[in-house]
Structure formats: C-alpha cells, structure tokens
Design goal:
The complex is a heterodimer. In chain A, 8% of the residues lie in helices and 53% in strands. Chain A has 3 helices and 22 strands. Chain A has an 18-stranded antiparallel β-barrel. In chain A, strands 8, 9, 12 and 13 form a 4-stranded mixed beta sheet that branches. Helix content of chain B is 20%, strand content 44%. In chain B, strands 6-5-4-3-2-1-13-12-11-10-9-8-7 form a 13-stranded antiparallel beta sheet. Classes of the chains: A mainly beta, B alpha+beta.
C-alpha cells in the first residue's frame, strides 16, 4: 500500500523523475568531496478526534490516526559553498486514502558565492509578514490534505538566482512543473459536501502543468522597515472549481488559470510593536482584484511576574471581490477580523500556547484555534490543537466544516 | 557679638559641609572615571579580532539537577564604528535544529534581529526589546550574551579584590538601556590581562539575581583571551546554566556578505 502510493506519486511527474536521476548522479559524484553529511528528521504520530459526526455518511465518524515520516539528508562541500538537501515526506492515514500521501519537500542544490547564490531543485520559498493569511506567498502549492490551515506546502521545482546588493536582495525564479492541489477524499473530514476530483484537471494554458512560471522578488531592510515586492507570472495555485458529474455522482472539477500578480509586503519593527502589511493585485482572464492583510503584533515581556512573553495580534483581511454569491465565488477573507494571543513560557521545554479567533464581519462566521506545544525530554515534542468552526452562510467554505470541530494531538520524535 | 559667633559657627559648619561635598564628589568622579578607564582598557585589549566562530554547548540545570543540552554555533563579525554582527545557529535540541538568528547590534538603541524558522522557511524580523528574557530557556538572558560596548553602561570603580587567586578590579556597571533586566552589575577583571573573571547581576529590585563565573581562559592569536567555560547561577531560582566553548577560531575571513538574509537561510 505504502509502496503503491509512493510509486504512483513519483512516476506521476516526469520532471520529478528526471530531477531524481539527475540528483543521483550529482550525489554519487559529489560524495567524494563532501566534507559534511547530516542525517536528521522527525517521525510523528497524530490522533484527531472529531466532536460530531460528519454531514456525509461516507465520512469517518470521530477518530483519525496517522503517522508521519520526514527525514532530511544534507551534504555540503567546498566549506559549505555547495550543499545538497533531500527531504522526502510521507504520511499514512488510517481513514482517508487521499491523506495518505508522499511528497518531496526538498531536493535541492545550492551554490553560494560572496554576493549571489543559485538554488536548483525542489524547494519551498516563503514570502510575507502576516500571520492569519499569507497573501503574497505564492510560489508553492498548498498541501491541501496534510492540514486544513493551508500552512503546509508541496515542494516546487525551481531554478532560483539570488543576488545580494546594497539596495536589497533580488531573486529571480524559473518555475517549471506545476503541482496540483490535492484534496481530502470521500472518507475524510474537513471537506465540502461535493467531492473535488483530484484526477481530471484542466488548464487555461495549452502547456498545462508544464507551463513555465516566472517570478521576480526584491526584498530589503531599511532601518526598522523590512520591505518586499514581487511579480509573479504563471499558473494560479488556487484552482477554480466547477460543478460536474461522474455518472450519478456530482463532482467539483479543478481548473487552473494563468495569472499575473503584483504584491507588496512591509513590516515595521518599532520597539514592542510589529506593524504588518501585505497587499496583492491579481490579474487573470476571469477577474482582476486587490486584496490586503494588515495588522499588528504587540509584545509584553515578562508577564505575570515570570519569564513568559505575551504577544497580542490583530489583523484585518480585505478583498475587492467581496462575499461569495450566486454569480461569483468571491473570497472568504473579504472583510474578516482576526485576534490572536501567543504565550511563550521561555522555559526549558519551550512551552507555548497560541490562540486565534477569526470572525467574518459581513455574516455570522467564525473560526477558533488553540495550539499548545511543549518539548518532552530532549527529542520529543507534543502538541495539542483545537479547532472550532461556525458559519450560517451556506456560500462560506466554513459552512461545510461547521460540524468538523476537532482536537488534534501529535507527538513527534526528532532525530 | 552673638551674631559674629553665630556667623563663625555657621562658616565653620558650612566649610565642613562644602569640603565634605567636594571631596565626596571628587571621589565619585574619580570612581566613575576609573571605572570607565578600566572598562575601556578591557575593551581596547580585545579589539581587532575581525571575526570569530565557535561552538557553544549550554547545559541547563534545574533545582533537581536535571540537565538539558543546547548546541549552538556562533559566528561574529567585528564592526569598527558599530556593535558586532552575529549569526547564531541552533543544532540541539533537535526540534529547533536549523533555526538561526541574525543580529546587528548597536551600542545605543535597539538591535536589528531576524529569526529563521526552517520548517516554514520563513525569515521573521523580531522585536529586540526583550533583552531581559531568557535565551533558549537558560539562565542567560539575551543581554548577557550580547557583545560588550562601552556606551551601554555607566561606571564606578569599587576597589580591588582577589578572585580566582588573581588581583582584580571591581567595577560596577549601570545599564543605560531602560529595557535592561538589571539595575547594576559588578564585574571583576584581573589586573594583568583585564579578563572578566566574575559578574554579579542585580535585578530591577536591586537584589542579587545571578552570578556568572568565567574559567579556563585561553589566549588566541597571542592577544585575545576567551574562557572555555562560563557558569551562570541564579540565586533566586536555584537553577544554573554552564556554557562550554569549543573550536574557537579568529580571523577566518568572514565578511559583511556572510551576515544577511540569504546566509541566515542556509546557515549550518
């Protein structure tokens, strides 16, 4: 079973296959010169408990267990100027076949010179400053089955040249080999009533997933300000979903459009205040729109007469497309307010509690997260997540997961 | 007559008071100048190391004697007219492996600090106001680990004392930064080499909080003294943290270009 999925996913993409063989050649030739090799990673178990039964009888009832394996192999040579990282990922889920998935999170080579570096292979690239929505972060596809918060990403094949100048860092990206978003299967929770087809996928571009995407980014720190700006040209990572049928069964089909996106992200670090701002303008054949995410984080140092720090966060989302209606899919972050609190105990176990509340200001919809984590001994980490969702607006994606409130306990062993 | 007597008495008294004031303030000025001079000498003797790298092991001990280990690599670049630049890379505990911290310190005002989170591949600019908070859950705060700069303190020479069998100066230092966790620290520097032997830290309520003791000093490049061990004991909590330094290297050719967002992301 594990083998079957692993093989399926790997042979799935020709690019990945080619890259793999290329890397095998590289590794065999370079191990001779490698002066450092590190093997590390994590193995984890995760248990989810859903408070209520799902809307659909096919969905798992309450319990979902899974295991995770994510090793990392690292080589470097030439005093660290050249390095190679390989980080495969595998999760085996007890209930949902689609959530049992593998990925190559990273398989990349870096050559670094004094003021430039080249990065080639499968990588993850993060952009942005805000916490509750990552508007400007567009390079990697979201791993839609790993978790529903959108924080997990699939590895993206890229060639990236990064040049450091006095006036900032310039990054140029060539992005071949588009990754499709994977969605939760029939047995899974945290999905809508109509299944999303992970197989018959269409593209606006005749090149399909072989379309070569381009991105350009400039980032710089000027005094208390950290500024980044980017332009992205290529396949939109978020698909348009349209209703279709498979025999009698209704299905949602994924369609990927081409887009151009211009974005700006700014953080001002002023004493205990962090002011954060992200904005994008996105252009595609179907729509043009602006969206922003803006807010602040304020830190209280040494609260309750202890070593603990308390961070208070507040952010607002705005999207020109507005709420979803019969004619448009709109945006679920069109006018939403978020509050968060982060309590770091600064103890030996790095105990931390994070809470977040998101509220839609246009209709009755909210989501609440609670995350607590703590190291156990030297190499284990336990985390407990609680997520609660509510909405009375049937066009809001939250509406479909309103019965999916759940508790998630994970224990990871780091080696 | 009575008036003259009074005047005389007053004059005598006033003179005594003025004399006392003058001599006291002269002494105060002397102590401040002497304290500053000793600290300047210590700083001067440690200039010109250009860049350095070292591996640091932290052993955290709680009151029951349970230990927890941190492994960190530190790279620093000396700046002529500013605070140093440094890159701190975490190797242990394993769950934070690959996490790295970039700091451009400034003698006056807030430092510029960035944190790299490898799981998210995210570089975060962080607030540097939290100088008094514990570093990695240890008994060292961020300010205890930052580089010593003359402008960070006010000074007072307290006298001489023998410590670790060495004749030493005692200098009291008052942090200028209002975010410091201390009202003062008393530093013992040996008279021959001006190496810090011991520091007593007094908290905001001016009670003794911690004592830091340096030992096993070694000299590098015939000039720069570095202690192999530093032990911090918290008198109020009973906890302690030992620092053990290994693989000290100086003038390794690090440059400004080794301290930016890109190097932070691939630091090992």
């Amino acid at each position: 079973m594990i083998n079957r999925i692993f093989t399926k996913k790997l042979t799935h993409s020709l690019v990945v296959k080619l890259l793999l063989s290329a890397t095998l050649i590289t590794t065999t030739t370079t191990t001779i010169f490698a002066n450092e090799f590190e093997f590390s990673g994590k193995i984890g178990i995760e248990q989810r408990h859903f408070v209520e039964q799902g809307d659909n009888p096919q969905q798992l009832e309450h319990k979902q267990s899974s295991i995770l394996f994510e090793p990392e192999l690292y080589w470097d040579w030439n005093n660290g100027s050249d390095s190679l990282t390989f980080k495969p990922f595998y999760r085996l889920d007890s209930q949902d076949d689609e959530r049992s998935h593998s990925d190559i999170r990273e398989l990349s080579y870096i050559h670094a010179s004094d003021d430039w570096e080249i990065r080639a292979g499968i990588r993850k690239e993060y952009w942005g400053v805000t916490e509750f929505q990552h508007l400007v972060d567009v390079i990697n596809q979201t791993d839609g089955v790993e978790d529903f918060d959108g924080e997990d990403k699939l590895g993206q094949l890229m060639l990236n040249l990064s040049v450091v100048n006095d006036w900032g860092i310039v990054d140029v990206f060539l992005l071949p080999g588009f990754r499709e978003r994977q969605y939760v299967g029939a047995d899974g929770r945290l999905r809508g009533p109509v299944l999303i087809d992970n197989d018959n996928i269409s593209y606006q571009s005749s090149a399909g997933k072989q379309h070569l995407d381009l991105a350009l980014r400039w980032s710089h720190s000027i005094g208390n300000f950290d500024i980044g700006s980017h332009w992205f040209h290529g396949t939109n990572r978020a698909p348009l979903l349209s209703l279709s049928t498979d025999g009698d069964e209704p299905l949602l089909k994924q369609h990927y459009q081409q887009m151009d996106q211009f974005g700006l992200d700014v953080q001002a670090t002023l004493g205990d205040w962090l002011w954060k701002f992200e904005s994008i303008y996105r252009h595609s054949d179907a729509e043009n729109y602006w969206a922003t995410q803006a807010g602040f984080e304020y830190s209280f140092v040494g609260v309750f007469d202890s070593n603990a720090d308390l961070g208070i966060l507040m952010e607002h989302s705005w999207d020109e497309r507005g709420e979803a209606d019969e004619n448009s899919s709109g945006s679920s972050f069109q006018n939403d307010l978020f509050f968060g609190a982060r309590l770091a105990f600064n103890d030996i176990q790095s105990s931390e509690i994070l809470m977040g509340l998101g509220s839609d200001l246009d209709h009755n919809g909210f989501s609440f997260i609670f995350e607590a984590s703590r190291r156990i001994g030297e190499s284990f980490k336990a985390s407990l997540d609680v997520r609660l969702m509510q909405s009375n607006e049937p066009l809001d994606p939250l509406y479909y997961v309103k019965n999916d409130d759940h508790l998630q306990l994970a224990i990871d062993w780091y080696f | 007559m009575l008036n003259t007597k009074r005047m005389k008495a007053f004059k005598a008294g006033a003179t005594a008071v003025i004399f006392a004031l003058v001599s006291h303030s002269t002494f105060a000025i002397d102590a401040a100048e002497q304290g500053l001079a000793i600290s300047k000498e210590a700083k001067m003797r440690d200039l010109g190391w250009a860049d350095s790298s070292s591996d640091m092991q932290m052993v955290l001990r709680n009151t029951q004697g349970q230990e927890s280990i941190r492994e960190i690599k530190i790279k620093s670049l000396e700046q002529e007219s500013d605070g140093d630049k440094s890159l701190t890379i975490f190797n242990q505990p394993r769950d934070v492996k690959g996490t790295a911290f970039l700091s451009f310190s400034h003698p006056i005002g807030a430092d510029d600090q960035w944190l790299y989170l490898p799981a998210l591949k995210r570089v975060k600019r962080i607030s540097s106001r939290n100088k008094s908070g514990p570093f990695m859950g240890s008994e060292f705060s961020f300010e205890d680990l930052s580089s010593f700069e003359i402008d960070k303190y006010g000074y007072k020479y307290l006298g001489d004392e023998q410590i670790h069998g060495l004749d030493s100066f005692m200098v009291e230092q008052y942090p200028v930064d209002e975010n410091s966790g201390y009202t003062r620290r008393i530093v013992w520097l040996d008279k021959t080499e001006y190496r810090v032997q011991k520091i007593d830290f007094y908290d905001r309520k001016d009670s003794l909080l911690k004592t830091l003791t340096y030992s096993d000093y070694k000299q590098y490049l015939d000039k720069y003294w570095r202690a192999d061990t530093a032990k911090m004991v918290n008198h109020q909590s009973g906890k302690s943290t030992d620092l053990v330094f290994k693989n000290y290297a100086f003038k390794t050719g690090l440059q400004d270009s080794d301290f930016n967002r890109n190097t932070l992301k691939r630091a090992r």
